[in-house]
Amino acid sequence: MGSKLYLIKEGEISLKGGNRNLFEKQLRHNIKNKLRPYHSEITKQKGRLYAEISDKAPDEIIRKALSTTPGITGFARAYMAKKSIEGIKTKALEILPSSDFRNGDSFRVTVKREDKTFPMNSHEVSCELADTVFSLYPEMTVNLKNPEHTLTCEIRGDVYLYTDEEKGESGLPYATAGKGMLLLSGGIDSPVAGYMMAKRGMKLDAIYFHAYPYTSEMALEKVKKLASIIAPYLGGLRLFVVPFTEGQEYIRDHGYEEEATLMFRASMMKTSERIARENGGNAIVTGEALSQVASQTLDAMSFTDSMTDLLVLRPLVGMDKEAITAVAERIGTYETSILPYEDCCVVFSPKHPVTRPVKEVVTRHFEELKMEEMIDKAVKNTVVYSFDPMGNEINE
Ligand code: ATP
Ligand code: MG
After folding, report:
1. Could you report the per-residue pLDDT of 281-292, keeping only the tens digit for each?
2. 186 Cα: distance to centroid of ligand 2 (angstroms)
């Protein structure tokens, strides 16, 4: 069975001193796991990973897998050449026709000569390879500073040739920094929040509070769709769907109207903490940003924080909507997030929510509501959906 070779560059991992092996091992595992239906072998050589992947794996699948895996700064399909200038040129002639090199475009050649016993120096090899490019594409031009295409030749123990390296996600491999529970709503923010924490190494599950029929079946479908879109960045996830209709109605009927959102958020924290702990999580992640809405003031956030002993992480807290939206567009969640199905907060939102709650007062009001039974019931009736690291829903 044949295989193809991909060269993978790690970014921040290479700065990790003693822990580097752990991070690298996890990254290799994460990549292999994504490509699981296909055979792959990943080896390490001087700060590089070389993945030999079965020929049966389509290029688009490999590219999706590598471009969404945090911890990778760049990657390219690579080819081994014979260790001689003839060998290198022959291989270049062979691979260039299936590359993006085109007449009229600009290019440069980069040669990295680590094996100092190779008889020609980098400059000489570059010139030879540039000639090879011109022999195929006489109307290309050289641009060293800002080329449209790059042909790279690395002369190490073996010789590797590749064109047009693609950018990776950078960051750190997920599952190297503990486990968290992402509060995932149908909005723009929370999928971005999950993506950001995954890039810092967290493994995440997600939880969604569903208030059917106030929120439609479509709202749930939207959240599932968002889960499947972020799954590749997170290495797959489980989505816990908590039925919270009764809880919402109870808060509406027994609480103070202007505090309804806070009471709901407190209930979400309590419920999320329970489900997180039952599943090995030790943090909660939300998509809140300071002052974006009434429930995201310092007072309100400090109240919801006090509802749980778990660490509450808000990676978007200092970002404005424009910046968050730009990330959402880049990772592909935006289009889905702006679909119109309302989330349950909107349906039960008070007209004049308190923005500066006094912690002692709202805490007492929350205690008086005695939400325990509601929460027990909601946890019991929670439904779990699973998504694999390529974003496919798995039927368990
Ligand atoms: P988003 O765009 O993520 O929905 P938002 O700006 O609409 O955020 P809120 O609706 O106040 O703000 O929600 C703040 C955060 O609370 C969300 O980012 C999400 O983490 C969490 N959240 C809100 N509603 C739900 C829900 N129904 N299920 C799970 N988490 C929720
Ligand atoms: Mg929302």
Report:
1. 999 999 999 988
2. 6
